[in-house]
User: Fold ATP-binding protein from Streptomyces jumonjinensis.
Amino acid sequence: MSPDMYPVPPAGTAHPSPEWGMFALPGTSSLTPRVARHAVRTSLTTWGVPDEAVDRAESITSELVTNSVRHTVSMTVVVHIAYDGRTATVGVSDAGNAAAGLTAQPAPLNAESGRGLWLIEALADRWYCRTAPNGGADVTAEIRVSHTRAEFAVRPHPEIT
Assistant:
């Protein structure tokens, strides 16, 4: 995978002080989804993303990474995350070839799997799939964040002041 696949945005160009990260995990380990969930939760929490958005991002990460581990031959799964104060973004790239035409379809009620992208559709405010520079799939989900933790600082109740 090209190191410039997800370049760090230049400071001050798109959003005020964006937080950004990327990490690669084994694409063949059953532990990879758990490690990815933990890394995403830790990063987003450290960046001050509200818990509700962190929970959604963690679930999205779990689905995307699990899909990569189970349904591709990728030796490596790359997770990229970002937060610009308004939107938390999480994406997963792998060597899969399902990028074109990927859609969320509900699975039959008796199916044991097949609900991952449908869940992404429900949890994300926007998601998309594109072909990664290595020819694999890159699925990215965005979660709009209405408040940062700083806005939830303890304030006196209006009737008490």
Observations:
- Residues 1-16, 148-158 have pLDDT under 50 and may be disordered.
